[in-house]
Amino acid sequence: MAQFGFENDIHSILKLDMPITNAPMARWQRKASSSNTSAGLSPGKPANVSLSSSRTPSKTPGKSKKQTPSKMGGDRFIPVRNSKQMDVASFLLSKENEPADANTSAGSSESQKAWSMSLNGYNIEDAKILHLGGKPLNAPEGYQNNLKVLYSQGTTPASVKKTRYISSTPDRILDAPELRNDFYLNLLDWSSRNVLAVALHNSVYLWDATQGDITLLMKLEREEDYICSLSWTKEGNYLAIGTSDCKVQLWDVDNQKRLRSMASHTARVGSLSWNDHILSSGSRSGHIHHHDVRVADHHIFTLAGHSQEVCGLKWSPDGRYLASGGNDNIVYVWPSVQNSGPQQSVHCWSEHQGAVKALAWCPWQPNILASGGGTSDRHIRIWNVNSGSCISSLDTQSQISSLVFAPNYKELVSAHGYAHNNVVIWKYPALTKVAELNGHEDRVLSLSLSPDCSTVVTVAGDETIRLWKSFEIDPIKKKAKERLVKSTSSVIHQSIR
User: Fold this and answer.
1) Average of pLDDT values for 290-305?
2) DSSP for 403-459?
3) 331 - beta bridge partners?
4) Are strands 257-263 and 247-252 parallel, antiparallel or unpaired?
């Protein structure tokens, strides 16, 4: 009993009658205050922790009443923001003032990006305080600022690059009744004097593109005979005509008079091409004859390479090479006319899988030849005569009947039969399609270029001739070119005097 009395005396001595004022808060009090704060209650009001955690909050989280910032020392007002956005913005603003660490490696930046994506849900480097939607406004048209403003400026009319307009409809349509719908014939040619020659069955008509006059030049005596090919001289005053009765006629257009009839072939003459006073003619027999029109014995040489009809024949602009294409799918390149010894071809290309009627030499690159294949081939091939190699090849998905280079815009024009029956303009040398000219209801047989190279004329099996004004030069460039021509011609006249 004495022991219990001693313990009671000790407790009574150690007992405090007043609370300790500076003592730290008890652990249970700290837990209670933290739970009350998380429940959204005022810290001064007591609450049961278990009840507050089980009850549904009376107010929706995040819908707390907005407080108006105080006038003194208040932050600028930003409409929509939360605490996380403000923390990120504060971090970015403080980070901008920090000096850049040059030793930071790419690997650490990648790891920082990964941590940012996992913690924040987005890359902190892409975070923005403000985001302005929409594109910046352009300056008014014609506006110029010498300070070179940073916002996008609308181009002035003087600096606007004029785009070329290519009409999808022909500039003019002419009737061509009784036109012979034969793929292997060449029934159209445009002279340097702006006169268009067209063969309709057994007659040849001339259309003056300047005046619009139509003239019947000639007609074969026998009704069963027909015209197979036409070709103007470089000066445009003489016209060569190949016929089905194996002859080549030479006509003076100014006087409408036949100068001579040259007989040397054994089959119809389907292709013709001039090189100064030398006229080359290709026949169904596969032979090519050279005629010197100045002498009585006109037949001076024969080229025997093709095994089938020669349907394409073109001399190069510089007169060095003659290109020939035949129904045997072969393209030959022959050297200039030699009066002695056997003549061998410079090149023989057999890549085409169809008849080669379409041939065209490049005016600004005399060593470049373009060839086009028939229905079984449908490819345009560009050849380098100097190296003998095929530079490029393009599948046009359609029979190719004729080709011509348009120098005004450095383009290549192709005429097509089955299955598209249209005309296509290609950019050279990329061979990308510039435009399609549709309108013919049957296969396009031939095409030719006007003297000023602004218009291409096509003739088709639908018995129509269509003129497409697709290559007009810019008026400013045209005037400059005319001035250059006048100045050179005046110099020539002075030297003649």
Assistant:
1) 92
2) EEEETTTTEEEEEE-TTT--EEEEETTTTEEEEEE---SS-EEEEEE-TTSS-EEEE
3) 325, 349
4) antiparallel
Kindly report the number of other CB atoms within 10 A of residue 66's CB atom: 6
Task: Report phi then psi at 165, rounded to 5.
Answer: -100, 125
DSSP designation for 186: B
- Distances, alpha carbon 439 to alpha carbons 224, 433, 442, in Å: 31, 18, 9
Q: How confident is the model at residue 64 (pLDDT cuts 50, 70, 90)?
A: very low
Residue 124 has what DSSP assignment? G
CA–CA dist 265, 219 (Å, integer): 20
- Considering the entire predicted model, what is its pTM? 0.65
Residues 447-457: what's their mean pLDDT? Answer: 95
With vertex at residue 94, the alpha carbon angle to CA 88 and CA 98, rounded to the nearest 5 degrees, is: 135
Mean pLDDT score, 189-209: 96
Residue 252's DSSP bridge partners are: 238, 257
Hey, what amino acid is at 315?
A: W
Question: DSSP of 296-357, one letter per residue?
Answer: SS-EEEEEE--SS-EEEEEE-TTSSEEEEEETTS-EEEEES--SSS----SEEE---SS-EE
Token pair in block for residue 463: 């018995």
Q: Read off the DSSP letter of residue 378.
A: -
Confidence of residue 113 (pLDDT cuts 50, 70, 90): confident
User: Left if phi > 0, otherwise alpha if psi is -120 to 50, otherwise beta: which for 148?
Assistant: left
What are residue 290's DSSP bridge partners?
A: 280, 301
130-148 tens-digit pLDDT: 555 666 666 666 666 555 5
pLDDT above 70 for 98: no
Using CA atoms, how far apart are residues 368 and 383, in angstroms rounded to an integer?
A: 6
**Rounded distance, CA 395 to CA 382, Å?**
12
Taking the C-alpha atoms of residue 208 and residue 215, their distance in angstroms, rounded to an integer, is 8
DSSP H helices in 219-265: none
